[in-house]
Amino acid sequence: MSKAITVSYEGNPCYEIVLEQNFEQLIGEIKKIGYTPDQKICIVTDSNLGRLHLAEIEKIFKSYFHTVSSFCFPAGEQSKNLDTVQKLYQDLIINHFDRHDIMIAFGGGVVGDLTGFTAATYLRGIDFIQIPTSLLSQVDSSIGGKTGVDFSQYKNMVGAFYQPKLVYMNLSLLQTLPKEQFVSGMGEILKHGLIKSASYFSWMKEHYTAILALEPDVIEEMVYQSCLIKRDVVERDPKEKGERALLNFGHTIGHAVEKLSDFHLYHGQCVSIGMAAACHISKEAGNITDTECEDILNTFTQFGLPISAEQLKAEDILSISKSDKKMVAGKIKFILLRSIGDAYIEQDLTDDQILDGIHSIIHA
Ligand SMILES: NC(=O)c1ccc[n+]([C@@H]2O[C@H](COP(=O)([O-])OP(=O)(O)OC[C@H]3O[C@@H](n4cnc5c(N)ncnc54)[C@H](O)[C@@H]3O)[C@@H](O)[C@H]2O)c1
Ligand SMILES: O=C(O)C(=O)C[C@@H](O)[C@H](O)[C@H](O)COP(=O)(O)O
Ligand SMILES: [Zn+2]
Predict the structure, then answer these.
(1) Closest CA to ligand 1's atom 44
(2) What percentage of the chain reaches a pLDDT higher than 70?
(3) Rounded to the nearest whole angstrom, what is the distance from the C-alpha of residue 224 to the centroid of ligand 1?
(4) Residue range 317-331: average pLDDT?
(5) Among residues 48, 56, 115, 340, which one has the fewest Cβ atoms lying within 10 Å of its Cβ?
(6) Keywords assigned by UniProt (predicted)?
(7) Binding-site residues
(8) CA–CA separation, 307 vs 300, rounded Å?
């Protein structure tokens, strides 16, 4: 069981996404890039990975590279900020990292986004490798080169497009991922089906027992299919000039809910709530039927994802949604469904239409 996908950037092969059940091929993949033992390695990770898996990965890197250090920060979205980036810059400086050295993002999306941004900006850019360990980071955040941190609690306000040199995932690490984090990753995976492939969405509904039981073949197939969908989108539109915005389905309201929950709700859970609102708006716009909307919401619930945010105020969600980055000429760039598997960008929604969607998740 092993799969690889090539990601091209501006028409040229740029990096490989490797799906494995262990770390046996990691050094081989690194040698293929042309890295040599004299290059210094900084493994960036969070406190949970530090406790569970850092020793194993350090040993693997030390079997090839002469100088391997690690930088560990407290787990959670609260760490995804410029303070942590500054501490990481300090660590790199103290350890004399220069432009030909390499950073390793070993963790979930928080580690990946923060490490990628630090790699993009330290010495105007040094190489980095993604070793995503959460379901969400394996299917979404490690691919496509969106890196960044939150600023003043606003999601991903400071960032850069910066591509990794390799994405290597050991799917067996999902065994230690807490259940609710696995479910959070399902939010982005179901999004992939909803925006790009009705058959993939149906496949997930058919396989939900096996998925939640973490059956290795089914998980590998699912991660692979999601990586293919994300790869195809980011290859066609690497800098979000058009189609890539579809990956933001559920995120405008989702990011507002994430901020308003003070990051106590996970990203994929907030995206699920945001998608529920967007589905309601899509239904009211005459695109999807009542039955389809109900089917989507039932599927979210079946996977354990939330579809409501009863404790929040509609006006707060609307006003924070409007301060998200996706405003164009004062209008929210909103993603709606034309049908299951087919999403589009809508820039002409009125506040009333958006509020109606928000009310559907508050009174769900
Ligand atoms: N760059 C992108 O394109 C992109 C895409 C989607 C999401 N994101 C960002 O990704 C972040 C969410 O990522 P996430 O859900 O991975 O969150 P996360 O990085 O906080 O990881 C979730 C939790 O799971 C733990 N964890 C990770 N892997 C584990 C494992 N194998 N075993 C045990 N514990 C493990 C982490 O320590 C953390 O507590 C958000 O900041 C979001 O904005 C970015
Ligand atoms: O890769 C993308 O493009 C995405 O939008 C994927 C999203 O799932 C992800 O949460 C991304 O970080 C959102 O980016 P933002 O620019 O809307 O903050
Ligand atoms: Zn997301």
Answers:
(1) 141
(2) 99
(3) 18
(4) 83
(5) 56
(6) Amino-acid biosynthesis, Aromatic amino acid biosynthesis, Cobalt, Cytoplasm, Lyase, Metal-binding, NAD, Nucleotide-binding, Zinc
(7) 109-113, 133-134, 146, 155, 188, 251, 267
(8) 7
Q: Which amino acid is located at 251 in the chain?
A: H
pLDDT tens for residues 211-270? Answer: 999 999 999 999 999 999 999 999 999 999 999 999 999 999 999 999 999 999 999 999
Q: How confident is the model at residue 323 (pLDDT cuts 50, 70, 90)?
A: confident
Among the atoms of ligand 1, which is closest to the Cα of residue 146? 1
Q: How far is the CA of 248 from the centre of ligand 2 (A)?
A: 6
Structure tokens at 70: 């690690």
Q: Which atom of ligand 2 is nearest to the CA of 113?
A: 12
Question: How far apart, in whole angstroms, are the C-alpha atoms of residue 304 and residue 269?
Answer: 9
pLDDT digits (tens, 9 = 90+) for 58-86: 999 999 999 999 999 999 999 999 999 99
Instruction: For residue 184, report the phi and psi dihedrals to the nearest 5 degrees.
Output: -60, -45
Quote ipTM for the complex: 0.99
* 3-state percent breakdown (helix, strand, coil) of the chain, nearest 5: 50, 20, 30
Distance separating alpha carbons of residues 141 and 132, to the nearest angstrom = 8
Say what the pTM is: 0.98
Looking at residue 364, what is its pLDDT?
63
Contact 48, 38 (CB under 8 A): no
Name the nearest CA neighbour of 255 among 317, 307, 305. 317
- Per the CB < 8 A criterion, the answer to whether 103 and 129 are in contact is yes
**Ligand 3 centre distance from Cα of residue 268 (Å):** 7
Of the candidates 168, 133, 136, the one whose C-alpha atom is nearest the C-alpha of residue 50 is 133
Q: Name the one residue in this structure whose structure tokens are 């559920």.
A: 250
